[in-house]
Write a structure and sequence with these properties.
The complex is a heterodimer of chains A (116) and B (112). With 116 residues, chain A is an all-beta fold. Chain A has no helices and eleven strands. In chain A, the strands form two sheets. In chain A, strands 2, 4, 5, 6, 9, 10 and 11 form a seven-stranded mixed β-sheet that branches. Chain B is mainly β and 112 residues long. Chain B contains no helices and twelve strands. In chain B, strands 2, 5, 6, 10, 11 and 12 form a six-stranded mixed β-sheet that branches. Classes of the chains: A mainly beta (116), B mainly beta (112).
Chain lengths: 116, 112
């Protein structure tokens, strides 16, 4: 299957700081990438759809100014958690959608964020 | 609105036996895709299998098969010959537009 990387895999930061998470499609071009959030023992919740060359589309209830998304190229999307607080601590996962007949979303390994 | 329901919070299966993980969905769309993903304790989401709503044959990928019953709106995952490494959380998901909506997940534990 296609390969999606995410960096960093772990981040611990102080409250009030900003954290940037990168998502890269390594062996295919992805015009659309997605950012999810997952709390312990819960399902994945879609936060936003990242579109190359245009603004991200956010799901209802997700603060645009809090979670900044930039899709600068066909292989890179970044999520910046601005002024992070302890309640932002979570597992953040990105995915990239392939084209072709069977359009499948491949996920990155995820980033665990802990805000102290 | 699209909805995915996984009614089994947890399942146990004996090693080498087959297990079925249930998934039902609700949609008014005629064209849709159904996915199963595996999430081990490491957190990564591993794509297992895909079924399109117009696919006439049930999807199969190695030891994974999808029992697709369109009239019942069910898309159960069957894992044959379970292995210890199959212990993980399993998510059923449905695609609408280009987004995925996930079920609550089923934790599978394979016993030796």
């Amino acid at each position: 299957g296609a390969v999606v990387s995410q960096h960093p895999s772990w981040v611990i930061c102080k409250s009030g700081t900003s954290v940037k998470i990168e998502c890269r499609s390594l062996d295919f071009q992805a015009t659309t990438m997605f950012w999810y959030r997952q709390f312990p023992k819960q399902s994945l919740m879609l936060m936003a759809t990242s579109n190359e060359g245009s603004k991200a589309t956010y799901e209802q209830g997700v603060e645009k100014d809090k979670f900044l998304i930039n899709h600068a190229s066909l292989t890179l999307s970044t999520l910046t958690v601005t002024s992070a607080h302890p309640e932002d601590s979570s597992f953040y996962i990105c995915s990239a959608r392939t084209g072709g007949v069977k359009k499948t979303q491949y996920f990155g390994p995820g980033t665990r964020l802990l805000v102290l | 609105a699209q909805k995915i329901t996984q009614t089994q919070p947890g399942m146990f299966v004996q090693e080498k036996e087959a297990v079925t993980l249930d998934c039902t969905y609700d949609t008014s769309d005629q064209s849709y895709g159904l996915f199963w993903y595996k999430q081990p304790s490491s957190g990564e989401m591993i794509f297992l299998i895909y079924q399109g709503s117009y696919d006439e044959q049930n999807a199969t990928e190695g030891r994974y098969s999808l029992n697709f019953q369109k009239a019942r709106k069910s898309a159960n995952l069957v894992i044959s010959a379970s292995q210890l490494g199959d212990s993980a959380m399993y998510f059923c998901a449905m695609e609408y537009g280009n987004k995925l909506v996930f079920g609550a997940g089923t934790i599978l534990r394979v016993k030796s």
